[in-house]
Amino acid sequence: MEQKLTKRDLWKLFMRLNTMRITLNYETLQGVGFMRAIAPVLEKTYTDKEELSDAMRRHTQFYNSHVNGDAVILAVTAAMEESTGPDEKEGINSLKTGLMGPLAGLGDSLIKFTWVPIIGSIGASLAFSGSIIGPILMFILYNIVNIGLRYYAIVYGYKKGIGFLNDNQESNLIQRISTMANVVGLMVVGALISTIIKVQTPLEISTGSSVTGEVGENVIAIQEMLDQIMPSVLSLAVTITVYHVLKKTKGSHAAMIIVIMMLLTIALTYFGIL
Amino acid sequence: MTMTIIVITLIAFILGIDDVSTKMFRRPLLIAPIIGFILGDVQAGLAIGATLEIMWMGIGNVGAYMAPDLITGTIISTSLAIMSTNGSIETAVATAITLAIPTSILAQQLLVLIQTINVSLNSWAKRLADNADVKGTFWLIYPPALLTGAARAVPTFIALYFGAGAIQSAVDALPTFVINGLETAGSIIPAVGIALLMLAMLKKFELWMFLILGFVFSSYLGLDILPMTLIAIVFAYFYEMITRKTAAGANGANESSKNTGEEEYDL
Q1: Is B245 found in the same domain as B192?
Q2: Which candidate among A50, B116, B132, B259 keeps its CA 20 to 30 Å from the CA of A38?
Q3: Whether residue B63 is found in the same domain as residue B183
């Protein structure tokens, strides 16, 4: 099947992909944005006005995915609109709904839960030492993936077309990358617990000699003791506690938990426990 | 000062639109240093940006769930913190953390409102589709873009223009132990962001093992994030391979047990 879209058309698709989320709304989420992004492609594919109108209507339906998933789906849709006959058009919508869930999950686990925490913590540690390189490095690393992957996905998705779906079913690519991203992300999160969260107690136990009655001869700093057993054990304890509270409340009261933690920390520092 | 506030308001407008389109600047660490630069204190901007970045690490929109608005929250809290604390970076960071939470949550409500208003775009889009008007689709994004920009710019202007004085006197009035407590809180609160990440990622019990691995590598062995990530990729590769093989192996085992069953039957 010959592919009609030129590099210029794909660039246009990329530009419209970038502004797709502006029309996000509670009825169709990105439905309007999807139709707007694909419209120039449809115009090129359908010469008949009635057909064009039908195609545009088809793409205003409910749609939502991750931004990099959007790129793949838009490109595959563009390729499919070209290659399918008039009675196969329903397949395009089922392709969209079939891909948007898995690709959203992949985008989230790859970028939001893995890449952003990694570059965020690298950037933040540089910024804490007062270096402007921190945010600049984060900006570059973030956007190489953010913008680069989006453009690549458009070009690759269009070239592969329906083949993308077949390839994916054969090798289960989305699932495999998701699993790997999940593991990398979790190991990074485990590392972040000890590098980023700092819970330290100035508490001391003084074991004064009972004979002389002197207090404070042998002072044991509790923090030192804890560090010998397990470094950052308090950070781990706080994180696991918050995790369980969040799990109980299904993650919906994060802001409330932050406020409570602030008040608690102020109280605990006041009494010299933290 | 009014000029500075107007410049920050403009930045809020631009970053507000960037957040829903190109998404190039949507993290606190990328926004706060810019604000710090405009207000003439890059160091405070860096410290606030790094703290907020880590604090909000696990926060992001997932599906239709709308997260606290980090853009407006970062812009307002960074500006007010730098404007109302004279030079002390620690106090500025403590002030920014305190302000970031209410501002992000209030601003989030505005975004919910905009997504509700945006519902009206659907009938416009359907009308365009009915007329097969491809040229007309070009304009679909402009009204909501203006609205989203304004949703960031207007609160920023109001907060900076009317809030700076009030925040300054509030910071001055706060007892030192509260400021100290807030500074400590800044390094404990990231636990919430990390716990949110865990909530999203720990889908199976066996995945806890990787969390333990990461923690041990970092706390006992003192590895940095970058070498840690490279090791993680190795583990991820083999974990994925093993889970795939076991899944295939389980299917294979079922088939072979069927076969032996048949053989026994033959005998």
Answers
A1: no
A2: B116
A3: yes
Both B261 and B190 in a single domain? no
List of chain B residues whose C-beta atoms are within 8 Å of the C-beta of residue A185: 197, 201
Pairwise CB contact (< 8 Å): A131 & B46: yes
B76-97 burial by CB neighbour count: b if 16+ within 10 A, else e?
Answer: bbbbbbbbbbeeebebbbbbbb
Rounded to the nearest angstrom, the minimum Cα separation between A218 and chain B is 27
Residues B161 and B228 in one domain: no
Give residue-wise pLDDT tens across range A213-262.
555 567 888 888 888 888 899 999 999 999 999 889 876 777 788 889 99
| Nearest Cβ partner for A197 among B190, B197, B237 | B190
For chain A, which residues make up each domain, given as ranges? 7-192, 199-270
Whether A59 shows a pLDDT value over 90: the answer reads: yes
- Among B201, B232, B257, the domain-final residue is B201
Which one is predicted more confidently, B263 or A225? A225
How many independent structural domains does chain B possess? 2
B positions 43-102 inside 8 Å of A (CB): 43, 46-47, 49-51, 53-55, 57-60, 62-64, 68, 97-98, 101
ipTM of model: 0.86
Tell me the shortest Cα–Cα distance from A163 to chain B, in angstroms: 23
B208 assigned to some structural domain: no
User: Quick one: which of B68, B79, B67 has its CA closest to B32?
Assistant: B79
Q: What range does the domain containing B245 cover? A: 217-266
> What is the H or E stretch that residue A205 is in?
strand A204-207
CB contact under 8 A, B197 and A24: no
User: pLDDT > 90: what percent of chain A?
Assistant: 46
